[in-house]
Amino acid sequence: MRILIAPDSFKESLTAVQVADYMAAGVRQVYPEADIKQVPLSDGGEGLTESLTAALGGVIKHCTVTDPCGNKVQAAYGVAGDHTVIMEMAQASGLELVPRDKRNPLTATTYGTGELIKAALDEGCRTIIIGIGGSATNDGGAGMAQALGARLLDSSGREISRGGAGLLQLDRIDVAGLDPRLAETEIRVACDVTNPLYGPQGASYIYGPQKGADADMVKILDRALQHWAEVIKRDLGMDVADIPGAGAAGGLGAGLLAFAGGKLQPGLDLVLEVLKMEEILASGLDLVITGEGSINQQSLYGKVPVGLARRAKRYGIPVVAIVGSIGPGAEAVYQHGIDAVISIAPGPITLEESLSRAGELIREAAHTALRLFRIGRNSL
Prior knowledge:
The chain is built from 13 helices and 13 strands.
């Protein structure tokens, strides 16, 4: 019996690595001799660093960086043996780092993300994989560029202020001091939004309010990003304004394109490609077990269980999803490669109890799933 266990995290409860361990424990209660391959996954958002580092056999390291408000914080990144570094911009520039009453995208900076990238370059990496969800910033990646050696100058030749509003001071860009190692490094960006940099569907209007921007601030930030794009086009010869994903993470997508040669890619596609998932699925599996905290209609759009199941079906492999809750529209996943969905809830249960007992409940759900799978196999 050859089984792939490849779940996403159960948010606010267990990491993907922990979920996979509990699932494997449940499987072994039924098939103790099973050949189990555990590949914890992420769709490119929260948990990318831990899950992908674990799957690649790497190690987690930490460095001190600047948070969106200018304070020093510890940020984690993963280092794999093939000179690959995995990181999440949210570790340095994330919304969760800023108390709600201090959120201000006019001044929030991605400088710490640049410092995190510099730490990766200091590791001697050849590839950087960076997830860019969950940002507190709207500075177009300007802070990141400054941390990596670019000079963003006003009309007096002084560095512009950090934050989204500072872009309105920008007169010219000087990249003579930009870290030369960037040109020798492949930077792959897990980016699941397609927003342009500015305009009605751009970074400021769509995501600015959740970062603390009121209606007037949104207009200022949008104008600032438009100016940023114009100066980048003039001084760097790159038109980033309308590239899908340029508006991701408050315009960090555009900054990574312009200053680091970043390549934007849907998060799950990137993760599965790096992990060589097609090779794993083609290796003769009997079953795939995946899962996430909640499955519903939105699971069709870039989420781990459905994305993995679609690929597994090319090889005729049955797929079971073990989930925390089953939401509206979840039945649609049966048309996209998932054969069965099992909730970990054993009956009426509070959210608090489900979260506190998640490991035990996941193990029991996997146990049940494999007993049913065994019945099916024996009846053939």
